[in-house]
Automatic annotation (TrEMBL):
Main location: nucleus
GO molecular function, one term: ATP-dependent DNA damage sensor activity
Subcellular location: Nucleus
BP GO terms, sorted: mismatch repair
GO cellular component, one term: MutLalpha complex
Designated name of the protein: DNA mismatch repair protein Mlh1
Residue range from the parent sequence: 5 to 363 of 650
């Protein structure tokens, strides 16, 4: 028999539960940014500006021109599991928004100092609110925590300061600010491509002179945004592919851009969106890489933008708190179709090197 003394079971304190949950969702500044960016897009924004200091660890700010948040919702805003996006579980089957868990702002408020400035179109003034551990808080000890009136444009500004101030080991694990900033830039760039037409920008605080590191315009096409973000050497060597299998049993619409032989990259760039969510899928990635290395001369590393619209009933978006993975039915068959579509376009394009392979 075990010599270990029996430990009694107790329910964890809510604060502890929420801080543990926050740690699962927000690993680093770029996770926080992804959540904030998705909220801005869910709010119907057409302009989104990101500002970062010290790789987002000192400060991460996002400003949008979306719907804004109703003043009376501000006390609830950062509570866990509070959302305006779904009401019942079945709503997940037809979800049209990025968000649904109502956990992002709550999580961020548990691991940083969070400030929200927001104004709806109908409101005469804007409101500024500060949060800590899910709740409204004053700026100084003893100060009234109520949201305060202020002047601001329509839309929402979220300011995240001192990320992981209360989780020292996580802050220490993220020492290199340049690495964190490049991850932020990567997320903004990928969303900018997928949401071409929405103007996005990203810059470091204090970098006003040298301008933004990324800037796209209202109404730009996908190719224009790819050029703005990844450069002309990429955008001018892309082929568009698409296949509509939405009425088949696969229930998927495939479309995207794939690079030909002329793009020189050190590693694969894959922008993968499934039902508009930026996700990762190693099986899709390795199958595409294999196509390139087996059919193209000099086995170039591909640049791929791939968007899959899958019948919502066939997709499970709720497999991971960060939503960076989704599961879908008929994965192998769908991947086959993707690879075939890209292969067709590589063979069809008038790149003589590819054509000569085919003959
Ligand atoms: P979720 O996105 O899953 O609903 P969040 O914690 O990310 O949960 O956000 C909580 C709620 O706050 C959202 O449902 C939305 O109503 C509101 N919200 C958050 N960010 C914005 C924003 N930028 N513009 C308008 N409303 C927002
Ligand atoms: Mg959200």
């Amino acid at each position: 028999a075990s010599k270990k003394k029996v430990s009694r079971i107790r329910k964890l304190d809510t604060l502890v539960i929420n801080r543990i949950a926050a740690g699962e969702i927000i690993h680093r500044p770029s996770n926080a940014l992804k959540e904030l960016l998705e909220n801005s897009l869910d709010a119907g924004s057409t302009q989104i500006q990101v500002l970062s200091k010290d790789g987002g660890m000192k400060m991460l700010q996002i400003q949008d021109n979306g719907s804004g948040i109703h003043k009376d919702d501000l006390p609830l805003l950062c509570e866990r599991f509070t959302t305006s996006k779904i009401q019942k579980y079945e709503d997940l089957e037809t979800i049209q928004t990025y968000g649904f868990r109502g956990e992002a702002l709550a999580s961020i408020s548990h691991v940083s100092h969070l400030t929200v400035v927001t104004k709806t179109r109908d409101s005469v003034c804007a409101y500024r609110a500060k949060y800590s551990d899910g709740k409204l808080t004053g700026s100084k000890l003893g100060e009234n925590a109520e949201p305060k009136q202020c002047a601001a444009n329509d839309g929402t500004q979220i300011i995240v300061e001192d990320l992981f101030y209360n989780i020292p080991y996580r802050r220490q694990a993220l020492k290199k600010t340049s690495e964190e900033y490049s991850r932020i830039l990567d997320v903004v760039g990928k969303y900018a491509v997928h949401n071409a037409g929405v103007a996005m920008s990203c810059r470091k605080l204090g970098n006003k002179v040298s301008g933004s590191d990324l800037q796209t315009n209202v109404g730009s096409s996908k190719l224009e945004v790819i050029q703005q973000v990844y450069g002309r050497s990429v955008s001018s060597n892309l082929f568009e592919f698409s296949k509509d299998l939405s009425t088949t049993n696969l229930g998927v619409k495939i479309n995207g851009y794939a690079s030909g032989t002329n793009v020189e990259q050190r590693k694969t760039t894959l922008l993968l969106f499934i039902n508009n969510r930026l996700v990762e899928n190693s099986q899709i990635k390795s199958n595409i890489e294999q196509l390139y290395s087996s059919t193209l001369p000099r086995s170039p590393k591909p640049f791929i933008y791939l968007s899959l619209l899958i019948k919502p009933q066939y997709v499970d978006v709720n497999v991971h708190p960060t939503k960076k993975e989704v599961h879908f039915l008929n994965q192998d068959l769908i991947i086959n179709e993707i690879v075939n579509s890209i292969q067709d376009i590589l063979f069809k394009n008038n790149d003589s090197q590819v054509l000569s392979l085919q003959n």
